[in-house]
Amino acid sequence: MIQLHGQGLIRFFGLDPKLVDPVQLCKKLRRLETQAHRITTQLCNGFPELDHDEQEDHIAELEIKLCQIEGKVCDLLESHYDEAPRNKQVKLNGIFINRDPRGYALKVSDKVIKDCAKQTNYADYFPHTDWGGYGVLAPDLTYDIENEVNYISTNWKELTTGNQQTQRQHYEAKGFIC
User: Fold this and answer.
1) What is the DSSP letter of 108?
2) Domain limits of the chain?
3) 51-85 confidence digits (pLDDT tens)
4) Which of 52, 85, 101, 114 is the most buried (most CB within 10 A)?
5) Per residue in 126-139, pLDDT tens?
6) Burial letters 63-83, b for 16+ CB under 10 A, else e
C-alpha cells in the first residue's frame, strides 16, 4: 500500500519515476507528517506552564518550524519534477499544513485536487484523500496493514481451503500470503 501511495504521488506531482523511489518518498513525507502533527498538537494544547511572554516566543518558534516543514515537503516534491512548470506550481502551492491536530497535517487543497482531476486524466487523481476531499500526503498506512493481517489470521482456514480463492489471490498479489 505504501508503494501504491508513493506511485500515486509520483504521478500526481509529475515526478520522474526513474529518479524517485515511491517507498522512500512516502517514508520521508511520513517523518515530516509526524513532526508537523506533533507541533500542531502542541499548539492546540497550549503551554500553561509558561508565562505570557514565554508562550508567545515558543509559539513563534513552533510556527517557524511548521513553515520549515512545509518548505521541506515542497523541496522534496520539487526536486525530481518531470512536468511543465505551470502545473508544478499549481500543485505545490496547494500544499499546506492543517492546524487541526485531529487529522493529518500535510495536505493538498481540495480545490487543487478537483481542478487537476477536471483538466487531466485519471492518473492525476490524488492517491489518498480525507472526507473533506483534501489530499493527504503521508497517511498512516500501517493501520490498514494491521486490519489485513487480522483478517487473514482470523479467516486463515477459509483462505487456505479454497472456499475464498479470489480473496486468497488478492492477498497473494499484495504479498500478505506466500
Assistant:
1) E
2) 2-138, 143-174
3) 999 999 999 999 999 999 999 999 998 877 665 55
4) 101
5) 888 888 889 999 99
6) eeebeebbebbeebbeebbee
